[in-house]
Write a structure and sequence with these properties.
about 600 residues; mainly alpha; Cytochrome C Oxidase, Chain A; 2 domains; two-stranded antiparallel ribbon; 18 helices; 2 strands; Cyt_c_oxase-like_su1_sf; heme binding; Cyt_c_oxase-like_su1_dom; cytochrome-c oxidase activity; Cyt_C_Oxase_1
Length: about 600
């Protein structure tokens, strides 16, 4: 028997009421905790997300400091003269810079978004297994400090070039970090199921995030094995050859082969966030919700199967190199190309977009991802070119396009859009936001362009000395790095001012950006033929869930949810006015 719309509405209402009661209990427990205790442990989803977000910003500055040490040294001397730091510390700074930016900044930011976006979009506002999530967060930070404090022996980027190697502390820390990531991933996936209603499809954005967690959790299995293998081996400090197999080949085979999904960990969660945000600025659903949802399994399969083309010249079976190094590397571009096609079609004429720093970061991230893909595809997978090109500036030019301008830039856009709702404060200064945007684009754009051009001219990688001909490239890299550094300081300054002096946001139980996103997605799904009982749970149109408890008789515990029936007010597009970057969202 097909349920009537009234029965479906009643089911939605009761589910929201159930979650609202549980969330009220969470708030009551949170009220009893001091600020210090909340820093150590929290079960409230926004507080948890803010804690992770602030930690990501801290690692941003730590990793950025290492980067500026590198750029300063390279930009002031082509002869390896220790103008800034000794060459041994130069290599250590390079290792720590990569670790802090990838795992400290990028991965922590992904978890921060996941713990905020999922409870907001599914309406539950609940985190599953918060003890595991908080323990994973602190273990992850401990692990990162262990890797950073390994001393000048920390040169894991060069473990293939014996006798350079990482310290045992680094390998132990990396193993602990993998365990910490598993803990946070388990909590994220549990949170998605906490807010799932049987028979209902989850919002598309949540689908991307959960897929991302599953992919990375599986990839981390072989990474953990590789890390333990390396720890026990001579290169890890314990001087044990397991089965007589050289450590370097095991590391490359297990780590670089299976952990290639790590480069998609930020992009896939970011894709989910973009799918949620783009309709808000377009004031209409994604061009095709069904096609967008099909990108989730497609991206999962291809992202998990891309053999690392960095080592195509290694003695692996030819069929593996042909299939994974070339074919899969080309195919993985397809879901990204399809996503951006849907993104641009949905937004339509850019002249009609109400621009702010948030959508500017996201829009430019899309463009940079396309540029980075075009730059990489013709060269990286080709065995005749890769061994040479991979040891030049071409590769770190490509990597900085993909990580700093696409991944980190896109995440910054999401923070600008959803940040006012998460922090409860409107951004203090929109002008500072625009300064951050243009400074970041100019700095990292210059950096990536110069690195790529220098690489084509033969500028080598992983060295402290080079021909004087290349020094001008390193000087421009120094300028680009410092531009991006100053832009980041502007962002942090704006963030601090926002927390201290930002205008308070109107408080609603469920953040309005999530309400509008779900309403638009449901609207689009109806147009594409989805059944009413399949649609994601509808959120109250004004974002408010009011519990009017009755204390007598059979009606005890029965509550009401206001405005559930007013979803139609949110669509079509002329009825919604959004200025999300500054925290303003209102119905006309």
């Amino acid at each position: 028997m097909v349920a009537t719309r009234e029965e479906i509405r009643r089911e939605e209402q009761q589910k929201l009421i159930e979650w609202a009661r549980q969330y009220q209990e969470v708030l009551e427990r949170e009220a009893k905790r001091s600020l210090f205790v909340k820093v150590l442990y929290t079960e409230e989803y926004k507080t948890l997300s803010i804690k992770l977000l602030l930690a990501a910003v801290v690692w941003f500055f730590i990793g950025g400091a290492f980067a500026l040490i590198l750029r300063g040294q390279a930009g002031l001397s082509s002869e390896g003269v220790p103008v800034v730091v000794d060459p041994a510390y130069y290599f250590q700074a390079m290792t720590n810079h990569v670790m802090d930016m990838v795992f400290g900044l990028a991965f922590t930011a992904v978890f921060a978004l996941a713990f905020y976006v999922i409870p907001a979009l599914n309406g539950s506002r609940l985190v599953k297994w918060p003890k595991i999530a908080n323990a994973g967060f602190w273990l992850n930070n401990l692990a990162l400090f262990m890797m950073n404090l390994g001393g000048i022996q920390n040169q894991y980027l060069f473990t293939f070039l014996n006798p350079l190697q990482a310290s045992p502390t680094w390998y132990i820390g990396y193993g602990l970090m993998v365990v910490a990531e598993w803990m946070e991933m388990v909590s994220v996936m549990g949170t998605s199921f906490e807010g799932r209603v049987k028979g209902r499809l989850v919002p598309t954005a949540i689908g991307f995030i959960v897929m991302d967690m599953i992919m990375m959790a599986l990839a981390n299995i072989s990474v953990f094995i590789a890390d333990m293998w390396s720890l026990f081996s001579p290169i890890g400090g314990l001087n044990i050859y397991l089965f007589g197999i050289p450590n370097a080949e095991v590391w490359k085979g297990l780590f670089w082969f299976a952990d290639h999904p790590l480069v998609y960990f930020v992009p896939y969660t970011l894709s989910g966030c973009i799918v949620a945000i783009a309709p808000l600025y377009a004031r209409r659903p994604m061009y095709s919700v069904r096609f967008t949802r099909w990108l989730i399994p497609t991206a999962f399969v291809l992202g998990s199967s891309v053999y690392v083309h960095h080592i195509v010249d290694d003695p692996w079976p030819l069929i593996l190199r042909d299939i994974f190094a070339q074919t899969s590397t080309a195919l993985v571009a397809v879901p990204f190309a399809a996503l951006w096609l849907l993104f641009f079609i949905t937004l339509g004429d850019p002249r009609k977009i109400k621009w702010d720093p948030g959508i500017a970061f996201i829009y430019s991230a899309a463009i940079w991802n396309i540029i980075g893909g075009i730059q990489a595809e013709p060269t990286n997978p080709v065995p005749a070119m890769d061994p040479t090109i991979h040891n030049t500036g071409w590769i770190f030019g490509h990597f900085h396009i993909m990580l700093t301008l696409y991944s980190v830039g896109g995440v910054l856009g999401v923070i600008y859009v959803a940040g006012p709702y998460l922090l409860g404060k409107k951004w203090y200064s929109n002008k500072l936001g625009w300064l951050h945007f243009w400074g970041w684009q100019a700095g990292m754009g210059l950096f990536s362009a110069v690195a790529s051009e220098g690489g084509l001219m033969g500028m080598i990688r992983r060295e402290v000395a080079w021909a004087g001909f290349y020094e001008v490239y390193y000087q421009l890299l120094l300028i680009g790095g410092w531009l991006a550094g100053f832009a980041t300081i502007i962002f942090a300054y704006n963030l601090v001012l926002t927390l201290l002096y930002g205008e308070k946001m109107p408080k609603t139980d469920i953040d309005l950006w999530a309400v509008y996103t779900i309403a638009l997605e449901r609207y689009g799904m109806r147009r594409e033929g989805y059944k009413e009982e399949e649609l994601p749970l509808m959120l109250p149109a004004d974002g408010m869930i009011r519990l009017n408890e009755s204390v007598t008789g059979a009606s005890a515990g029965i509550s009401s949810v206001k405005a559930l029936s007013s979803e139609a007010k949110l669509v079509p597009k002329p009825d919604v006015d959004l200025s999300l970057s500054s925290g303003n969202a209102s119905q006309k």
